[in-house]
Specification:
The protein has 204 residues and is mainly beta. 12% of the residues lie in helices and 32% in strands. It contains three helices and 14 strands. The strands form three sheets. A seven-stranded mixed β-sheet has the order 2-1-11-6-7-8-3, with no helix packed on it. Strands 4-14-13-9-10 form a five-stranded mixed β-sheet, with no helix packed on it. The radius of gyration is 16 Å and the shape is globular. 34% of the residues are buried.
């Protein structure tokens, strides 16, 4: 049986150094006028969850979707980490990274979920690649996080409680690729079972 989250799934923005550096000039602009001091989180609601091997439907008015490959921590008892799982955090292209609109990130089916939980391993040694139709289009090295996995967990726990079964993504690297209907997307990472999803277009 494929892994299914048992709690709330949280995404995190600006946690890869390359992304934070790219967006640094915008962080000084109104309304915030400074970089965020705490992790920037958003929720991937249950309607977005797509198990490994399933098709993901693009809205009829969307030509492309952004592929947000990441690895997530699954919370265990007493705030521990029960394991890690691959995720594909799809979103429709949008301009704002600081307060991501729900309508772009919480479309039905817009979270591919890896087939199995990986127990153990040091997230600072994790890496992944995104393959679209068999071609490598993106990579991520999790030693390049702004907040390491333990620091991210500690910083989130400083202002909210994560319950057993909750899932906290580590973030997506800069340069996320775009995909379209008909594309077969694979997220491949050493030590993890590969996550596969296929995009289809919503019928007119």
């Amino acid at each position: 049986m494929s892994f299914v989250p048992q709690g709330t799934v949280y995404g995190v923005l600006l946690n890869f150094k390359a992304e934070a550096e790219t967006l640094a000039p915008q962080m000084g602009l109104p309304p915030y006028k400074a970089p965020p001091k705490a992790p920037v989180l958003y929720v991937k609601t249950a309607n977005t969850w797509s198990p490994h091997g399933s098709t993901v439907t693009l809205p009829r008015d969307a030509a492309q979707v952004e592929v947000g490959a990441t690895i997530a921590m699954v919370i265990g008892a007493q705030g521990s980490v029960a394991g890690h799982v691959l995720m594909n955090d799809f979103s429709l292209p949008h301009a704002s990274f600081f307060r991501p609109p729900v309508k772009y990130k919480c479309v039905d089916g817009f979270l591919g979920i890896g087939p199995a939980l990986r127990v153990g391993g040091d997230p600072s040694g994790f890496s992944l690649e995104v393959r679209i139709n068999g071609e490598t289009r993106h990579t991520a090295d999790f030693s390049q996080l702004v907040r390491s996995a333990p620091q991210l967990l500690a910083d989130v726990n400083a202002f909210m409680t994560l319950a057993p079964g909750d899932v906290l993504m580590l973030g997506c690297n800069a340069g996320r690729p775009m995909a379209q209907a008909g594309d077969r997307i694979e997220i491949v990472a050493p030590g993890f079972e590969t996550l596969r999803n296929t995009l289809v277009q919503e019928a007119a």
